[in-house]
From TrEMBL:
UniProt binding sites for substrate: 219-222, 241-244
One Gene Ontology cellular component: photoreceptor inner segment
Protein encoded by which gene: Asrgl1
Cleavage (site feature) positions: 190-191
Organism in which the protein naturally occurs: Rattus norvegicus (Rat)
GO-annotated molecular function: asparaginase activity; beta-aspartyl-peptidase activity
Protein name according to UniProt: Isoaspartyl peptidase/L-asparaginase
Gene3D superfamilies found in the cross-reference section: (Glycosyl)asparaginase
InterPro entries, per the entry: ASRGL1_meta, Ntn_hydrolases_N, Peptidase_T2
Family as reported in the entry's similarity comment: Belongs to the Ntn-hydrolase family.
Subunit architecture: Heterodimer of an alpha and beta chain produced by autocleavage. This heterodimer may then dimerize in turn, giving rise to a heterotetramer.
Keywords: Autocatalytic cleavage, Hydrolase, Protease
Pfam families the UniProt entry points to: Asparaginase_2 (PF01112)
Class in the EC hierarchy, top level: hydrolase
Active site: 191 (nucleophile)
Length: 332
């Protein structure tokens, strides 16, 4: 179990931030997917991308934007970055095609929007937000979601423009290895997510993914469901990543918030939820969580998880265990 924390590290549970702030702080935390090891050659690009996304979300909050605006902005940035498995750079399914899932939720009134198995759209998170705000529904899938996107004036992005050389090679390798989607071997890295707390005390989350490489056509994972993320102003906001089938079975995001509801610290809640998934199903993954007072945690059981958090103007980020770095906010 790995936890991001400001200045020290280790395997015991310690809250990432002091509890109970007096005023509502602006907080944004982002993740770039629970992963096996990230190659040294990609680490810098991944670190840069994740820091920029957290900064984008924080700048939106500072300019008076809502928590929903912040998570949408941060996740859009990661969807546009080919280093991550969401939007441009999504992993390929067994047919060599992209099918993406995304969701967003406003903790103020529990309004939620999700899309699954969408193709030819650059930013599924924006479509999920439109489902939340412009339809009487929470969830649109496949053809219906694409028709709705066209009705909303979202331009079509040809599939070839979302596919990269890296994702083509990834699929080839997976097919050669007959890549079974094992719960305890999360090779499928790069799903992205964000959680935010705004100046009005509103919480939100967004999660977006291409899913898992070499998945069956039509497979939908946890990311567009309440297992892949949840936000409730009374409790907190969570975005999850990892083995989707395991995450769905334990309803990971809501499970973590259940522990918050029971009075646990964010660190304890994340640990209990991830440990349960691991002990029950051997499922590995990670999550980011902010509670209503602005305490946050980034925690994972996979080998690594790129994450970044901005609170009180200070950016902290890391990928591996014992690797928290504090730095100035980058200029976007
Ligand atoms: N890397 C991931 O987080 C994959 C995502 N949870 C899915 O199973 O669709």
């Amino acid at each position: 179990m790995a936890t991001a924390r400001p200045s020290s590290c280790g395997r015991d549970s310690v809250p990432a931030t002091p509890r109970a702030s007096i005023d509502v702080s602006l907080v944004v935390v982002v993740h770039g997917g629970g992963a096996s090891n990230i190659s040294p050659g990609r680490k810098e690009l991944v670190s840069e991308g994740i820091a920029k996304a957290a900064t984008e979300g924080y700048n939106i909050l500072k300019a008076g934007g809502s928590a929903v605006d912040a998570v949408e902005g941060a996740v859009t940035m990661l969807e546009n970055d080919p280093e991550f498995n969401a939007g441009y750079g999504s992993v390929l399914n067994a047919d060599g095609d992209i099918e993406m899932d995304a969701s967003i939720m406003d903790g103020k009134d529990l309004s939620a929007g999700a899309v699954s198995a969408v193709r030819c759209i650059a930013n599924p998170v924006k479509l999920a937000r439109l489902v939340m705000e412009k339809t009487p529904h929470c969830f649109l899938t496949g053809r219906g979601a694409e028709k709705f996107a066209a009705d909303m004036g979202i331009p079509q992005t040809p599939a070839e423009k979302l596919i990269t050389e890296r994702t083509k090679k990834h699929l080839e390798k997976e097919k050669l290895e007959k890549g079974a989607q094992k719960a305890d071997c999360p090779k499928n890295s790069g799903t992205v997510g964000a959680v935010a707390l705004d100046c009005k005390g509103n919480l939100a989350y967004a999660t977006s993914t291409g899913g898992i490489v070499n998945k069956m056509v039509g497979r939908v994972g946890d990311s567009p469901s309440g297992a892949g993320g949840y936000a409730d102003n009374n409790l907190g906001a969570v975005s999850t990543t990892g083995h989707g089938e395991s995450i769905l079975k334990v309803n990971l995001a809501r499970l973590a918030l259940f522990h918050v509801e029971q009075g646990k610290t964010v660190d304890e809640a994340a640990t209990l939820a991830l440990d349960y998934m691991k002990s029950k199903l051997k499922g590995l993954g990670g999550l980011i969580l902010i509670n209503k007072t602005g305490d946050w945690v980034a925690k994972w059981t996979s080998a690594s998880m790129p994450w970044a958090a901005v609170k009180n103007g200070k950016l902290q980020a890391g990928i591996d265990l014992c690797e928290t770095k504090t730095r100035n906010l980058p200029t976007c």
